[in-house]
């Protein structure tokens, strides 16, 4: 677009000079006026298109700065919302394959961001999202990203989560309309959506595969 403008401006200027220096055409004929009007309208349209492109580019850079295509940045991490349904192990393998792990949620602010993001993705209705917590090992809930125990938790209280005992050992985020962002334990073999997370600009353990 910018290249087109840099061409159009000189062309228009030359046209104006030509019209003015030609002794036989001191006044613009209706045809020339129409041409100039058309060019001016085209340039205005180009300008507004460029403004729109600049705005969307700024938004994209701000949103994905430092993260791969398809990943979204929040603070110093990149997130991938897996919108195909996998069981917890399959989802963890997918994340590992892309240099990440199922998401460890560090605090309420991050949890709120994830929940809000799911709304942006228009996942308003019933859905569940695997996170990277599990009590598979010895009944204690830990984050598989670093094997640390949960500090921040956001279990859904209404149904007494985690309520699955030894049958439900994997963590997911609930986004039923009224349960937004609260946590639930589920059988790890259930197939649901998932969330991968990795450090910004960290390609460690990443195999060279496309997203
Ligand atoms: Ca359990
Ligand atoms: Ca449960």
Tell me what you see in this structure.
This is C-type lectin domain-containing protein. Residues 1-23 form the signal peptide. It is a single chain. The protein is an alpha+beta fold and 211 residues long. It has a domain at 96-199: Mannose-Binding Protein A, Chain A (Roll). Helices cover 37% and strands 20% of the residues. Strands 1, 2, 3, 4, 5, 6, 7, 8 and 9 form a nine-stranded mixed beta sheet that branches. Bound molecules: calcium ion (CA) (2 copies).
List the helices and strands and how they pair.
Blueprint lengths: L1 H20 L8 H35 L7 E3 L2 E10 L1 H10 L3 E2 L5 H13 L7 E7 L7 E2 L4 E2 L20 E5 L8 E4 L5 E8 L12
Parallel strand pairs: 4-9
Antiparallel strand pairs: 1-2, 2-9, 3-9, 4-5, 4-7, 5-6, 7-8
Helix pairs in contact: 1-2
Protein name: C-type lectin domain-containing protein
Keywords: Coiled coil, Disulfide bond, Signal
Organism: Mytilus galloprovincialis (Mediterranean mussel)
Task: List the defining traits of the structure above.
single chain, 211 residues, alpha+beta, Mannose-Binding Protein A, Chain A, 9-stranded mixed beta sheet, 9 strands, disordered N terminus, disordered C terminus, binds calcium ion, C-type_lectin-like/link_sf
């Amino acid at each position: 677009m910018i290249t087109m403008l840099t061409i159009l401006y000189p062309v228009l200027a030359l046209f104006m000079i030509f019209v003015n220096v030609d002794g036989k055409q001191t006044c613009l004929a209706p045809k020339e006026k129409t041409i100039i009007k058309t060019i001016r309208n085209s340039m205005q349209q180009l300008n507004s298109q460029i403004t729109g492109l600049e705005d969307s580019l700024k938004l994209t850079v701000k949103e994905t700065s430092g993260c791969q295509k398809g990943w979204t940045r929040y603070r110093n991490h990149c997130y991938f919302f897996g919108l195909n349904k996998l069981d917890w192990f399959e989802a963890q393998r997918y994340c590992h394959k892309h240099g990440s792990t199922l998401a460890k949620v560090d605090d309420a602010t991050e949890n709120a961001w994830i929940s809000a993001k799911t709304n942006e993705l228009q996942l308003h209705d019933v859905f569940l999202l695997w996170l990277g917590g599990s009590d598979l090992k010895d009944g204690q809930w830990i984050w598989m990203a670093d094997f640390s125990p949960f500090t921040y938790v956001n279990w859904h209280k209404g149904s007494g989560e985690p309520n699955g005992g030894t049958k439900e050992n994997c963590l997911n985020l609930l986004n039923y309309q009224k349960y937004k962002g609260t946590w639930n334990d589920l059988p790890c073999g259930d197939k649901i959506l998932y969330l991968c997370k990795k450090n910004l600009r960290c390609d460690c353990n990443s195999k060279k595969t496309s997203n």
